[in-house]
Amino acid sequence: MKNMHTITSATPSAAPPRRMRPPRVDWPALAPRVAALRAQGCSTRETARRLNMNIKTLEAHLRRHRIRHAIPMDRPDQVRRTCLNCDTAFVADGRFLRLCPECRAMFS
């Protein structure tokens, strides 16, 4: 019995061009605005909210480029926190403080 399948010759045909969609976020244009907001002390959530973008998109970008925290710490007992009331980033003097100084002053 003869094989009914025909083998096509492996001619180097031009592969169709791969479709590439344009990037959804223009990172070179957004990078200075992201850096400015993070330098002001905005959290990742607040930065994403001000730029009208998804927080997971911004987190993935920051993780991919290894951009961590914008607020420097002076002492080893300080901790970076996000305020539970206003979502701003701040450096707490102890690990149990969860409200920024402005919100603590407002509530006390």
Automatic annotation (TrEMBL):
Q: Which SUPFAM superfamilies match?
A: C-terminal effector domain of the bipartite response regulators
Parts of the chain that traverse the membrane: none
> Where is the segment annotated Disordered?
1-24
User: According to the UniProt entry, where is the signal peptide?
Assistant: none
- Residue stretches of biased makeup (Polar residues): 1-12
Q: What is the name of the protein in this document?
A: Helix-turn-helix transcriptional regulator
Upper classification of the source organism reads: Bacteria, Pseudomonadati, Pseudomonadota, Alphaproteobacteria, Acetobacterales
